[in-house]
Amino acid sequence: MARDRDAQAHMTYHFLQHLDRSGFENVSYLRQQFNDYRETIEEAAKLEPLSASTLNHQEALTMFSLGSGQPWVTCLLEQDELYDVSDSLIQYLNKIDDVSHGENEVRARMKVDAILIESLFEEKRFALGAHNHNQHHRSNVPVPALSGPSTPFTAKSDGRPVPAPLMLKPEVEINRIVTYKYERRLLKGIADYTLHYDAKDPYGTNLVIVEAKKYGAAGLAEGQLLAYMGMVHQARKDQGKRNITVFGVASDGEAFRY
């Protein structure tokens, strides 16, 4: 693994040299970014790791200088904010209950998997349907009113814009150098799920999901979830992204805490 990283750094360095000779206008900026990245990698290799799963709520907030909002409350949605759950999803969740025994991590994972896959499928279908409706003014395509942030668009090979694909990525490694109890540490962990419009960037997400290890323990994952959200938030700030808002969800397959 270390040799692979060294080889990648070596190739990136020579790529920047090639750009320099080619007169690329942003090469000095890219070279500085590369040097900063290399120094960070070298420092991280020397630091003692700190698992995100060991942090509590207050430790995560303090670490990233975040303020605590309202305490956990039950979300009461309006009727027009509710969507029908497909019969196929209900049947599948019932099957999980029928064949699994006890409230354990495997059962929680299967339920969260099913709910996320169904939700993403419907979101893609909805985004594409709304796009086609706006493009072609098809009155026979029922499209609910849009609310909240709009879906990003990408261009097809012929130049036509289409909704950017929203991808579910499981088991995403997230790490960052932090200060913990007056010491520099390498905070690290693996988020159970993230949603991406840019699948190549591990921090190109604005939704992080942590699956609780057992039934009724969604609240126990709060510190770990906040740590992941803080790392993504800071990385997006460092990258100069306009949208640095990050959402998080902790779930045991039954309750979802946002």
Structure notes:
The chain is α/β, with parallel strands linked by helices and 258 residues long. Helices cover 43% and strands 20% of the residues. The protein has six helices and eight strands; from the N terminus they run H-H-E-H-H-H-E-E-E-E-E-H-E-E. Strands 1, 4, 5, 6, 7 and 8 form a six-stranded mixed β-sheet that branches. A two-stranded antiparallel sheet has the order 2-3. A hairpin with a 5-residue loop joins strand 2 and strand 3. Helix 3 runs parallel beside helix 6. The relative contact order is 0.13. About 5% of the residues have low confidence.
Summarize the structure.
The protein is an alpha/beta fold and 258 residues long.
Keywords:
single chain; 258 residues; alpha/beta; six-stranded mixed beta sheet; two-stranded antiparallel sheet; 6 helices; 8 strands; 43% helix; 20% strand; globular
The number of helical segments is 6
Secondary-structure content class = alpha/beta
Query: Can you give the helix content as a percent range?
Result: 40-55%
Q: Rounded to an integer, what's the Rg over CA atoms?
A: 22 Å
**How far from one another are the termini?**
36 Å
How many strands appear in the DSSP assignment? Answer: 8
Note the beta-strand portion: 15-25%
Dominant shape: globular
Largest sheet: 6 strands, mixed
Would you tell me the overall average pLDDT?
A: 75
Uncertain stretches of 5 or more adjacent residues: 136-149
Q: Helices and strands, in N-to-C order?
A: HHEHHHEEEEEHEE
